[in-house]
């Protein structure tokens, strides 16, 4: 009991019906057996490093977004193309969400298709996104809005 709080043992933690429980009781021990001790700690360190990287990329995308918008708020394809892919895709995701695409329904495959309007432009048509949001390239600009 820490700070006089009772400890509650969640029965789901031992139930193999739950993926997290199976991983904890079967997957992680198998990894440690195959790779040696310290796998859990190494995974935790990697997760923290990945979180730090993601936070830095999110901040970079936030700053970059202002520099790729024209006076009407459309995204300039040439400026987007110059951004590193991880930053560019974050800018595209933010623009899609701002236009009304539900974040929980907007997947990597959607953003990759929109990204091809920048990096693989061959005159393709509009990309339909969740929430009735449409992304299309018009005159060197990317327009993302409700369809």
TrEMBL record:
Q: Name one GO cellular component term.
A: cytoplasm
- Annotated SUPFAM superfamilies: MesJ substrate recognition domain-like
Name one molecular function that GO assigns to this entry.
Answer: ligase activity, forming carbon-nitrogen bonds
- Which InterPro entries does the annotation name? tRNA_Ile_lys_synt_subst-bd
Annotated ranges, domain tRNA(Ile)-lysidine synthase substrate-binding:
75-142
**Please, one GO biological process term?**
tRNA processing
UniProt xrefs under Pfam families: TilS
Descriptive protein name: tRNA(Ile)-lysidine synthase substrate-binding domain-containing protein
């Amino acid at each position: 009991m820490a700070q006089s709080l009772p400890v509650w043992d969640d029965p789901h933690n031992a139930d193999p019906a739950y993926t997290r429980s199976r991983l904890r009781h079967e997957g992680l021990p198998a990894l440690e057996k195959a790779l040696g001790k310290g796998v859990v700690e190494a995974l935790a360190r990697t997760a923290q490093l990945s979180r730090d990287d993601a936070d830095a990329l999110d901040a970079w995308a936030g700053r970059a977004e202002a520099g790729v918008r024209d006076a009407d708020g459309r995204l300039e394809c040439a400026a987007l193309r110059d951004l590193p892919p991880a930053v560019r895709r974050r800018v595209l995701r933010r623009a899609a969400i701002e236009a009304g695409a539900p974040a929980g329904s907007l997947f990597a495959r959607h953003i990759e298709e929109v990204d091809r309007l920048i990096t693989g432009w061959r005159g393709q048509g509009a990309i339909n996104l969740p929430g009735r949001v449409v992304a299309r390239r018009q005159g060197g600009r990317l327009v993302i809005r409700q369809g």
